[in-house]
Amino acid sequence: MYLCEKTIYSYRKYIIKMKESDRMAQSIGLNIRARRRALGLNQEDLAGKLGLTQANISRIEASPRGPSGEMLVALARALDCDVHCLLGVESASGEPGQGIDEDVRTFVLNAMRADPQFGMCLRDFVRDPVPLAEKDWKFLASSLKLALGYAGDAIRAGRQKG
Predict the structure, then answer these.
(1) Which of 19, 64, 99, 113 is the most buried (most CB within 10 A)?
(2) What is the pLDDT of residues 63-89, one digit of tens each?
């Protein structure tokens, strides 16, 4: 009994210390597993679609780091869903991108494909139980505008170089 209690205590301590990004990456693995099971696929079936082994799929689903962006896109294709589904980012209606301009939706999904951690950060904002105040929205909007301006300038400068 003592050993069991000690193990549970250690596990709880580990979970508390685990980085938030690690927990989000684990939830991606759980989302992959849930989608795979919803389609009636086992790990070997999914591995066959991707040219991987069952052990690879097991590691992807259990990984505390989450899959690479490239692998996430391949998994989404194999599981007949969009990357947002595996990241757990959906609108309140359950329909991804419902009610937003298609260009904006494409922009966000491309950014999420390029960097899955961006998607995890975005999901945190969307799922935060505490609603943002007007001043928070203004700060967020101005910060994003500034970051996108710098990024756009850097991209354009890079294109001009070659």
Answers:
(1) 113
(2) 877 788 788 889 989 998 888 788 876
The tokens describing 71, both together, are 């692998």
Q: Are 124 and 24 in contact (CB under 8 A)?
A: yes
Cα(128)–Cα(30) distance, rounded to whole angstroms?
20
Provide Rg for the chain, Cα atoms. 19
- CB 81, CB 90: distance < 8 Å: no
How many angstroms separate the CA atoms of 21 and 152, rounded? 27
Return the structure tokens found at 32: 């992959």
Q: How many other CB atoms are found less than 10 A from the CB of residue 161?
A: 5
Distance in angstroms between the alpha carbons of the first and the last residue of the chain = 67
Measured CA to CA, the distance from residue 147 to residue 73 in angstroms comes to: 25
Residues in CB range of 91: below 8 A, 6 or more apart? 97, 98, 99
Residue 24 is predicted with a pLDDT of: 54
pLDDT digits (tens, 9 = 90+) for 79-131: 988 887 888 765 344 454 455 567 777 777 788 888 888 877 877 777 777 77
